[in-house]
Amino acid sequence: MRFVVALVGLPLVLVAGGCGSGGSGSAAGGGEGRWESFHQRAGEVAEAWRPGPEWSSGYVPLQDPTVPLGDPGFTPETEQAFRNGWYRERIDVPGAAPADATIRFPAGALSVPLVSAATAYRQLDRGDPPPCAGRPPAPTPENRPSVRPRNKSTDGPIVEPGPDGPIVSPKPEGPIGGPGPVVPTVGPGQTAGSGQAPGAGPTVEPGPDGPTSTPNPPSPPSAEGPAGPTVEPGPDGPSTSAAQAACVSLTVTAVRLGTAPVRTSRGMAQVPAWVFTVAELTAPVARLAVAPGAVTAVPRGTAPTGPVPDTAAPTGPVPDAVVGAQDVQAVNGAELTFRIGVGACDTAITPLVREDDKVVVVGGGVTRATGICTDQLLIKPVTATLQRPLGDRPVLDVATGTPLIVRP
User: Fold this and answer.
1) DSSP code per residue over 22-37
2) Are residues 272 and 330 in the same domain?
3) Of residues 172 and 54, which shows the higher confidence score?
4) How many domains does the chain have?
5) Least C-beta-crowded within 10 Å: which of 20, 220, 277, 280?
6) Full domain range(s) for residue 110
7) What distance in Å separates the CA atoms of residue 321 and residue 342, rounded to the nearest whole number?
8) Is residue 175 part of a domain?
9) H-helix or E-strand containing 380?
């Protein structure tokens, strides 16, 4: 029996690897006898696929509307900014909608209205980055943990804490009322002159007729200078107030109307797009420019209505050890990379594929854990090789029958 003892972290975790080996699989997924339940359900999904007329006559994009045009040369910071939509513009983005343009399919074309560059940019930009964990914005002098701000008062000496009590530094121009020596404040329990910074003022000592003062010898200047940060011991050694960088935004420096290659229900098409030049990337970023009224939504799939092997309910859960797919990561000829959802303790992760001339149905096979495990969904990329290039065939999820979107 499988027990769930806790919900750890987020319910959805993206991982580059899984709890077991993934790798590439054949079009049949391998082990047809073991995965007979997958192939039976995949056949039902393929048989139930009946898209409407817009599938072959309209514009149904099967790809995310933000498309890098080439290798963007991501760093971890710029990839995070791209995934989250963190942009800032350094140009005036045009607000007027252009004239209609044409989508060019492998067989045929379609004239469509477009949105303005400003509208496309608003869709692209989803906000500003928050400070990263461990990487806060550059602190101001007032909130630096190890730099004490100077007293802004102009009518008295500057008092700072020292290791043995208050330290008094005279103002350069002396106290209000005229020039003269500044007598430091003596803290409780101190002898006069204790805790005083060398060179900060006279030392006060008792004399027969009252306090006398003798100047301290000057101390060598600090390497940091009078305005440098204070270095204080920390748990692992000295700590300073060096500023750290915050998470980055992507800077848009130019925009033009162009096209982008997009996977659609009618195959790969050249689709009008606003192309943004981004200073931090080595390739521009395109945002599809087709007006919403000309876009047909991806149809929902039809899950099998007959009994699923090893389950009681006709439309019940996917058979145990078979999991559904989330999206497509990449298509390279006959090589298909897609993401599946697996449990935190699942092992022997295997890509499963069933294909025919019209559709490709995908999912995954796993070995379930028998002991105690957390209740988590991990997203695992797997790769399978089809019998022939994908072409314009849709990729359907074995669990829901819905076409999968390409999200690199």
Assistant:
1) --EE-TT-S-TTTTHH
2) no
3) 54
4) 2
5) 220
6) 61-133+248-294
7) 9
8) no
9) strand 377-385
Residue with tokens 């695992």: 380
Which residues does residue 355 pair with via DSSP β-bridges, in sequence order? 360
Note the pLDDT tens digit of each residue in 265-319: 999 999 999 999 999 999 999 999 999 999 999 998 877 764 334 332 334 455 5
Half-sphere exposure of residue 359, counting CA atoms within 13 Å on the CB side? 21
CA–CA dist 16, 273 (Å, integer) = 31
Which residue carries 């919900």 as its tokens? 7
CATH number at residue 285: 2.40.128
pTM of this prediction exceeds 0.90: no
Exposed, middle or buried by CB within 10 Å (0-12, 13-18, 19+), for 260? buried
CA distances in angstroms from 82 to 51, 216, 406, listed in the order given: 33, 60, 16
What per-residue string of b and e applies to 233-252 under the rule 16 or more CB within 10 Å gives b? eeeeeeeebeeeebbbbbbb
Residue ranges of E strands in 5-98: 12-14, 24-25, 66-68, 87-89
